[in-house]
Amino acid sequence: GVGDATFRVVLLGDPGVGKSSLVGIFRREQDRETQEQQQQVMYECTLTVDGEDTSLLLMDTSESEVRKLTGSSDSPMRIGHAYIIVYSVTDRSSFESASELRIQLRRTRQAENIPIILVGNKTDLVRSREVSVEEGRACAVVFDCKFIETSAVLQHNVRELFEGMVRQIRLRRDGA
Ligand code: GDP
Ligand code: MG
């Protein structure tokens, strides 16, 4: 059934915001590398959330690959079932890029109601923060997506992020 399907979750965001670090936390814990081509690295993991297992195929991306594949049917913008858009709370330009990615995603996948979570990473770097939590939250409201702040280094809120993604996917699946 649909519950047994594997969902492709694509991570997008500026270079250096922490995409690979966020995915890497799962990689070390439990995952298995399933595919490596054109710098697209996928990790399969199964999360137990609310007593039910869901398999995710986490797809880490790099800037060059996203640019190279733009417009093609293999574009990360086209192949995801769900998206995690990451910025760094210490880098305002990465926050602006996150908005652009959201707009691009909406344009590419117009009619689809795709789960998207906006992630402000690097909350541990308190003194270099450039984007407040209120700004992040407000941006998520404007762009109609979920929002969470994380620290990949402290592994703070990372499990919550991926559990939240599983719940978003299930909401769509269950038609709620
Ligand atoms: P990517 O280019 O988006 O994949 O970013 P990376 O995961 O490669 O991380 C870029 C740099 O930021 C690396 O040096 C990471 O160690 C660092 N980094 C990633 N996440 C965090 C975080 O939450 N806090 C801090 N302090 N550094 C982080
Ligand atoms: Mg990376």
UniProtKB/TrEMBL annotation:
GO terms for cellular component: plasma membrane. One of its GO terms (molecular function) is GTP binding. Keywords: Calmodulin-binding, GTP-binding, Nucleotide-binding, Phosphoprotein. The keyword Phosphoprotein applies. Interacts with Calmodulin. Belongs to the small GTPase superfamily. RGK family. This is GTP-binding protein. It comes from Leptobrachium leishanense (Leishan spiny toad). The lineage of its organism: Eukaryota, Metazoa, Chordata, Craniata, Vertebrata. The gene is REM1.
